[in-house]
């Protein structure tokens, strides 16, 4: 089984490549992945990512994916290494201009016993990856999320000390951080 889909993304080819090459970001564009972490190596060919799955139709609760091609920003290849037939997904990046990329995604499932469980699972993975192209586009074209302000540890103590000093006329010259 093989299939290819193409989509246009309003982002630079290098940015699209970097987003997809970082396997820890896969939960943002693969709805059936609830979490992902780096398994081995820090990137490039041979890097593996462990994904926690929400889709019981793959027959697994965790999936190991390995980078098999890493040619920035032209081509990225991923293999579902923990599935029996090792289906692959190959992303090809073509810059239309500095801010627009055509992304072509091809999936391949090696020949197996027709209708066998391994083939069914490998085909399901390939179809799910192909179906994720709109999610990739949405993630890359979404405006950046507003940063939430979070207090630093110990900030309340510093603010309270400063207020106390302001009301008594004594402003502290040194602050001890607690947290």
How would you describe this structure to a colleague?
The protein has 179 residues and is an alpha+beta fold. Helix content is 28%, strand content 32%. The chain has 5 helices and 7 strands; from the N terminus they run βααββββββααα. It has helices at 13-21, 26-29, 117-131, 133-141, 155-168, and strands at 2-9, 33-40, 48-53, 62-71, 75-80, 88-97, 100-108. The protein has a 7-stranded antiparallel beta sheet with strand order 1-7-6-5-4-3-2. It is globular, with a radius of gyration of 23 Å. The relative contact order is 0.18. Residues 151-168 and 170-179 have low confidence and may be disordered.
Summarize this entry quickly.
By secondary structure, this protein is an alpha+beta fold. It contains five helices and seven strands; from the N terminus they run E-H-H-E-E-E-E-E-E-H-H-H.
Query: Which stretches are poorly predicted, pLDDT < 50 over at least 5 residues?
Result: 151-168, 170-179
What is the helical fraction, as a range of percent? 25-40%
The profile of the biggest β sheet is: 7 strands, antiparallel
Query: Quick one: overall form?
Result: globular
Mind telling me the C-alpha Rg?
23 Å
Mean pLDDT: 81
Task: Please describe the topology of this protein.
Layout: E1 2-9, H1 13-21, H2 26-29, E2 33-40, E3 48-53, E4 62-71, E5 75-80, E6 88-97, E7 100-108, H3 117-131, H4 133-141, H5 155-168
Antiparallel strand pairs: 1-7, 2-3, 3-4, 4-5, 5-6, 6-7
């Amino acid at each position: 089984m093989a299939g290819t889909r193409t989509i246009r993304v309003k982002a630079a080819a290098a940015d699209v490549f970097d987003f997809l090459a970082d396997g820890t970001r896969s939960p943002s564009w693969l709805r059936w992945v609830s979490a992902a972490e780096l398994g081995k190596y820090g990137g490039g060919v041979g890097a593996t990512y462990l994904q926690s799955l929400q889709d019981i139709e793959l027959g697994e609760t965790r999936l190991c994916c390995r980078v098999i091609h890493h040619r920035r920003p032209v081509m990225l290849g991923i293999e579902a290494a923990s599935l029996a037939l090792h289906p692959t997904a190959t992303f090809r990046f073509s810059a239309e201009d500095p801010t627009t990329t055509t992304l072509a995604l091809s999936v391949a499932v090696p020949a197996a016993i027709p209708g066998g469980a391994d083939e069914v699972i490998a085909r399901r993975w390939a179809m799910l990856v192909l179906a994720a192209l709109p999610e990739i586009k949405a993630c890359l074209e979404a405006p950046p999320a507003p940063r939430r302000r979070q207090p630093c540890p110990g900030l309340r103590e510093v603010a309270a000390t400063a207020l106390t000093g302001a009301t008594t006329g004594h402003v502290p010259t040194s602050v001890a951080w607690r947290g």
